[in-house]
Each structure stands twice: as C-alpha cells, then as structure tokens.
Model the fold of this input.
Amino acid sequence: MRGRGAGFAFRGRVFWVSSILSFLLLSFFAAPNTPAQRRDHLTKEEVELIRDVQEVDGRMEIFVRAIDRRLIAISGTSGLDKDQLKRLEKEKEKWGELPEGTRSQLLSDIDKILDEAIDKLEDVSERDAKNELFAYAVYVLADYAKVLTGKLEALRDNSADPRDIAVLNSSIGQCGDIIEASSKVERPEPKTKKKKEKN
Done:
C-alpha cells in the first residue's frame, strides 16, 4: 500500500493475465542490445514544458496533450477539424512539430508517457500527500484515460503486429490502473479561473 489513504495505489494490484501475456510478447520480440534504437518518449520541447510547470495537475495536462499529439501523428491530420488544425499550428512555437517515428515507436511513446505520468502521481502521493492539486491531477489523467482506452482498443483491433498489440495492451492496462486508482480519490470541485486584474 502506498501513499494517499487506504487502498490508494496505481500498481498495487495483481496484473491481469493479458498484461502478463503482453509483457512476455514484448520480451520475446524485443531486439537485443541495440543502443542505436534507443528513443526518448518525450520530445525536447515536451521535456522543457514539463520542467517549466511545477504544478502536478499542469504536468498531467502536458502528458495528456503529448499522448494526443502522438495519436494525431499515427492517424494523420486529415481527420482533424479547423479548430484542431489551428491549435496544432498555434502550438508549434512551444511544442514544436508533431513527434516523428514509426507507428510502433509512437505507440511505445504513449505507453511510456502513461508510465511516467503514473510515476509522477505516485511520487506526489508519497512525498506531498496534502498537496491540494493532487486530486485535480489524478482526475486530469483518469478522465483522459477513459477516453483514451477506447482509442487504444480501436488501434489494437486494427493491428496485425504482435509487438504493437502487446504495447497497446500494456497501455490499456495502465489506463485501467489509473481509472481504478482514481476511485479512491474524491473528485475535487471544478476550479474557478481568476480573471487577471488590469492595471
């Protein structure tokens, strides 16, 4: 049992059989000792954004958007509406171009981003249990995980590569962990945005 209250943990439960099978598949198909294939799951711009944001809920929003950008990179921009395209263009200055990589690499990025986001939340729950932003951060990730699960399942259903299926199963399992853990945390009241006073 870790951190914030009885029963609160993201990874404290027995893994599903599907998660074990996913891990075995990943281990079986993983290439042996290939340093040249090492890849950062976040771009340098995303790393900078995370460093610049100290609030844990703000960091979760960055992780969420980073995953969204990889889903766009996988599916392409043709299905985006005008507002979504405008947002991508506006983001370039801070976020850079959409992340590059093969489908498998981008799916792996998503799995690792989810893993890092969970680690950050667990760290806050252990080190700063009274942080008033913790609950907001949990629900930023949990609400997104509910939407993301369906998207990942659709990608898995259309995948033929067993390595991709294994990674997707891992990500879906992590979404389940996040949603389950959020049930142990009371949903906070919506934030009220304060208007900046004009001098």
